[in-house]
User: What shape does this take?
Amino acid sequence: MNNDLNTKPNIRQAVPFFLVGDMEVSLHFYMDGLGFTIANKWTPRGKIEWCWLQRDGVALMLQEPRRDGHHYKASEGKPGIGVSICFTCEDALALYREFAGRGLTVSEPFVGNNMWVVILKDPDGYKLDFESATDVPEETKYSEWFK
Assistant: This one.
């Protein structure tokens, strides 16, 4: 173990890695709905089986397991149930309007922990929270604040 205080940080980023039930459905949600773009992909059989998506300063990975042979492990229900990813943003309300304008089902924003919180779920049940700092009182709902 290196205890040298002058070394550069080694760990730079954590990237969520989601198993998905249908890559095409997930790509539509993340790219057309949330505005991510493909930065890297793996297409061993002529279609995307894994990809790295990016938007602004964040990334996530998607993989559709192969349904044949030893690569497939069936999961009970949707793989994302119980998993939440929080994205810290400059303006979560702008994202709320953007996502709703693209036809996504987005919960009404509310203030929690001094942040506007915008929540939606992806097609596999992963919960995505987009949050930005605010001085609006706790538990205020968007419809109460924005009239």
Notes: Helices lie at 23-33, 92-101, 142-145.
